[in-house]
Amino acid sequence: MINEFDSTLKEKLISFAIIIEKELGLSFRSEQKLYDLYVKLFDIFSSTNTKEKVISIIDSINLKREIPKDLLTPIANILTINETYFFRESNIYPLLKSYIDKIVSLESVRDIKIWSAGCSSGEEPYSIAIFIKENYPKDIVSRVKIIASDISEKALQKATKGVFSKWSFRDVKTGIIDKYFQQNNGEFHILDSVKEMVVFKNLNLISNNYPDYGKGLFDLDVILCRNVLMYFSEESIGHISNKFFNSLLSNGILITSAVEMNDLIFKNFIREIYGECIFYRKVTNNTQLDKKESSNSKNKSSIVKIEKRKKQEIISNSTIKKTSIYIPPKEHLTKSIDYIRELANRGELDLAVRELNILIENGRSESIIYYLYALVLSEKKETSKALNMCQKALYLDSQNLEAMILSGFLYMECNQKEKAIKSFQTSLKIMEKSSDKELNTLFEEGINGSRLKEIIESLYIDLDSNG
Ligand SMILES: C[S@@+](CC[C@H](N)C(=O)[O-])C[C@H]1O[C@@H](n2cnc3c(N)ncnc32)[C@H](O)[C@@H]1O
User: Fold this and answer.
1) Is the Cβ atom of 148 under 6 angstroms away from ligand 1?
2) Which of 27, 65, 300, 309 could bridge to 304 as Cys pair (CB 3.0-4.6 Å)?
3) Closest Cα to atom 3, ligand 1: which residue?
4) Residues 90-102: pLDDT tens digits?
C-alpha cells in the first residue's frame, strides 16, 4: 500500500508527520500510519481534492516548519479520534468516590478540581458530573469543579451543545438516562443542571498552556486523560506527563486508561491501585528510609560473611527479569508482582514496599506477596522485619520453598543457627517432593534445580557440622 508512494512523496510525508507530532503530539511513525495520514489529508482539504493540491499544501507547511493557525483546527478535527461514550471504563468511579470522600472528610471548604483532558464530545466530564450528583448532597456538588478540554473544535461544539445519540449510552442504566436527559426525536439532551457543572475549553495538550491560572488548570485534584495519549509519541507523552505533574496538587491523581500506563514515562508519579483501577499519584514527600535496622546490620556473624555469596547467588536471581510495566486491572495481582520484582531489580526498594503495602491494604493475602515483602526488606537490611514477613508467607503456604530458603538465610543473619538448620532441612524436604521442572523454573536465571539443591545441602552440612 505504501508502495503507492514514490520516494519523494514519502519523504514529504515524513517531514509533514514530524511537524504534526511536534504540534499535536500525534504520532504517524509507521508506514501504515503514514499512509493513513496521507488518506486523511484528502478529507481535510476536501475542497481541493486533487493529489497535486494536497501535495502543494504539504510542501508549504513543510517549508514553514509549522501548521498555519487556520489549518490547525481542521487538521486536528480530522486527525483526532473522538470515539467516546458515557461511563466508559467505569472502574474509575469507586476511586473518584474514595478520593472525594477523603477530601470532604478532611477539608470542609475548598473546591475539588477535576480536569478531563481530551474530553472529546463531553461524555467523560458529563459522566463525572452525573456521578457526583448521584453520590453527593448539593453542598458538596457545588464544590466540585469540572474542567474539560480538547483540541478538536468540532468535538467541543458537540460537547457544549450537550445533545447525544443512543450510541453514546452503550454502557448506561436507563434510570440514569431518564433522570439526566430529555429525549427529543431520538436525541438525548443533557439537563442544564449537569451541563453547568462542566466548563469546556480548547486546549492543545502538547502546548505549554498549562498549568494555567486563568483557565483554572492548576492545583488540580484529579486529571483524567484517557484514550488520548495512545496516539502520541513517547517524547510527547513525557512532555505532557511533566506538565500534568506540575498542574496537580500534591497527592492529586492522574488517571489514564490501562493501555496508556507506562511507569517509565510517568516516572514522576507513584503508581497505585484502588479496587480495579490503577492510577498515578503525585507524591512530593518521599517516605523516610528506616535506617535503624540498616545500621544494626554491621554486627554480622562470621557465618553470614562466609555464606553471603551463596545467599547472593540465590537472592539476586529471585528478583529478576520481569519487564512488564503496563498493568491491566483484571490481572493486577500477577502484573503487580512482576512490577514489584522490576522495582526491586532497579533497586527501588522503598517503592517496592509501597506497592506491597497497597496490595496488602487491598486485602491480598497470598504467600508470594509476603515472601516478596521479606525479600525486599532483606535487601533493605531490615532483617528482623524480613523474618517476620517470611513467617507470614510460610504461615499462608508452608510449602513456599523460596520463603523457606530465605528464612534460613535470615535466621543465619540473626545468628539463630538452630532455626536456620531447620529451615534448610525443610527446604531440602520440599525440594525432594518437587519435580526438576518446578525447581528449574523457581529462580529464573542461573540456578537450576540441581544447583539449588547443592547450595542448600552444603549450607545445611556446614551449619550442622559447625556444631
Ligand atoms: C478517543 S477520545 C477520548 C475521549 C475520552 N477521554 C474517553 O476516554 O472516552 C481522544 C480525544 O483526544 C483529543 N486529542 C487528541 N490530541 C490532542 C491534543 N494534542 N490536545 C488535546 N486533545 C487532543 C481528541 O480530539 C479526542 O477528542
Assistant:
1) no
2) 300
3) 227
4) 999 999 999 999 9
